[in-house]
Amino acid sequence: MTTRDGWDEGSAADGRDISGWETRTTRPGEPGGRVPGRASGGAYPGLPQMPGTPERHGSAYSQAEPPLPPGLNPRGPGATRRPGPQQGGQQGRQVPQQSAGPGYGRADGLNPTVRENAGTPGGLPPELDPRGPGPRGPRGGGGSGRSGWSRRRKVRFTLFALVLTLLVVGVGSYVWADSKLNHANVLTDYAGRPPAGKGTNWLVIGSDSRQGLSKAQQQALHTGYAAGSRTDSMMILHIGSNGNTLMSIPRDSYVTIPAWTDSKGIKHNASKNKINAAYAYGDGPLLVKTIEFNTGLHIDHYAEIGFSGFVNVVDDLGGIHLCLDKAIVDKASGANLKAGCQDLNGTQSLAFVRERHQEASQDLGRMKHQQQFLAALSHKATSMGTLLNPFVLYPTLDSGLSLLTVDNNVGLTDLASMFFAMKGVQGGKGKTITVPIADANYQTPAGDAVKWNMTEATQVFDAFKNDTAVPSFPS
C-alpha cells in the first residue's frame, strides 16, 4: 500500500470549491493510485490524484525535492515547499501551474509579469521560456534594445559627417579663393639672372594705381588723378631658417635700370634712374629685374596690391590696431590721426602709410609707417578671430585676393606663408631693416635720390643669399 500527496482542484456536488492538498492511499494492484473513501487532508472519494506530486507517509516527505520556480508556485512568488522524504523512490511528472493574477486564463498559461521578466527572480527560467534563451528588451523594444543606433555609432556618424562637411567646405573655399588671385608673368628668366639662394625672397610692393577708383573716390582718398601707376612702397621679405627679415627699399633709391624692351617692341639701354621709374616703365617684370640686378638676389615670389584693395581689406577686417607715438596731420595724404593706440579704418590706414611730409626723413619715415602697418595687418588677417569667422574671412578674401596680383607660381599656401612670416617679424621672430644708406639726399640728374651704402648693403644681401644671420648697422 502506498500513500501519496497532491494538490486537488476539485469541487463538490453543490458547486463548492474543495480544492486542496490531498493524501491518497493506493493498495497493491489498484490502478490510478486511489482507494475510494480513503482520502485525507481535504481529499474526496472519486477525485483523481495529481500526477507529479511527491509521495508522503503521514506528514513527512520521503525525499527532499527542489522547490518549484517562484513563477510556477501555486502559493505565489517567494513561497517555498516544505521539505520531506519521498517514499517509494517514485518521481511523478511535474505539471506547470498557472500563476494567479492578471495573466490567469491566458492561452499560453503564462502571467505577463512572468513573460516580461523571464530569466530573472520571479520569472520563467531560460530553459522554460517559449521565446528561447537570451536577453530581453523592454516591451515592444524588439529584443535586446538594438532596434536603433547605439550612442557610440551616433557619435561616430556625427563626427564623420562633421569632418566630411569641413573637408567639402574647405576644398570648396580653397578653389573659390584660388580663383580670386590675379596671376601675372612677373618672374621671367633672362641671361645673367642671379641663381636661387637659400630661403625664400618675396618682393612685396604697394602700387598707387588708381584703377577701379572713381573720381570721387580718388578725391576722398587723396590719391590724385595721375594716370598709370607707381610704387609707394617696396619691400623684400626674406623667409629663412635664421629668422625672417623685412627689408624696405626707398622708392627714390638711385640704381641702374637694366636694358629692357617695352610693349611696343622698342629696346631700351641700361640707364641710371630712381628705382621707382623701373615700375613706371615696365611694371612688375622690369622692377623685379632691376632689384635682382642691383642686389644680386633671386626673387622667388611677387605680390602687389593697389589703393582700392588696400582700403577694402582693412574695412573688411574691421580695422587694424596701431599705436602712434605722436599725432599725424598731413593734408597731402589726408592723415589726421591722434597720438596713442587706436583702431584705423581703411581710409585712415591708407593716409597713414602714404604720409611723409611730417616726417623729418620724408620717405624713410614713411617706410617705417608701412612696416608698422603691414605687421598690424598680418596680425589681424591671421588671427583666430578672422580665420574662424566666415563673416570676416570671406569678405576679406574676396576684396583682398581679387585686387592682389601675384606671380604665376604663387598659391594660397604660399600667400599664407608670407603673411605668417610678416606676423612673426612683428612678434619678435625676425627683424625689420632698411637698405643701408650712404646719402638720403643724393643729387642726381633725376633729382634728389637715395644712395645706398654698398659696403654694408652687400653684407645684407649676402646674408639673404646664404640664409645666414642678417647684420645690423647703426643708423
UniProtKB/TrEMBL annotation:
Residues 30-44, 137-146 have a biased composition (Gly residues). Residues 1-149 are annotated as: Disordered. Gene3D superfamilies: LCP protein. Keywords: Membrane, Transmembrane, Transmembrane helix. Residues 73-85 have a biased composition (Low complexity). Signal peptide: none annotated. This is LCP family protein. The chain crosses the membrane at residues 157-177. InterPro entries: LytR/CpsA/Psr_CW_biosynth, LytR_CpsA_psr. Residues 230-382 form the Cell envelope-related transcriptional attenuator domain. Residues 14-27 have a biased composition (Basic and acidic residues). The lineage of its organism: Bacteria, Bacillati, Actinomycetota, Actinomycetes, Kitasatosporales. It comes from the Bacteria. Belongs to the LytR/CpsA/Psr (LCP) family. Pfam families: LytR_cpsA_psr (PF03816).
